[in-house]
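Z., the sequence and structure:
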Amino acid sequence: MESIHEIERLKARIELLEKMIKKTSVPIISSIVDHTILVPIVGYTGAERFELIRNQVLEYIGENPTVNCAIFDFTGSDLNESDEHDYNTIAFELEVLNNTLKLMDIRPISVGFNPSIVRRIVSAGVQMDFESYINFRMALKVLVKENESVIQL
């Protein structure tokens, strides 16, 4: 009987740890540009991960309604390291992510695609229509210039 309780306790512990991993696998960072967040995407970038990213960002926006821009940084993602991706799926997931945010009146910006991934996406004939910049710094420069923001440190 004691072993059954131990198994149940361990199952509950595993479930708690899995929730913690999911929560921390999508860090959302406030930017120095007002009302802008940075979402660094590191590691795996499959459909399940994009769904998790969408859900976490939407939850954050629900809790922080002043956010009006989300920058997704793919510099550390496996998109930039792998030849095994289905680029139509990636394009679809990026489109869903961007359209989801646009429905919430949030400006989505993607950064961090290296030249190799860009060549592979273009060579695959994938059509992608979204705002992107080479890196996070360039996106911030554009936002600061557009908003003529005063940066608060």
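The helical segments are 2-24, 47-63, 87-103, 115-123, 136-147. The chain has a mean pLDDT of 84.

Let me know what you think.
H.
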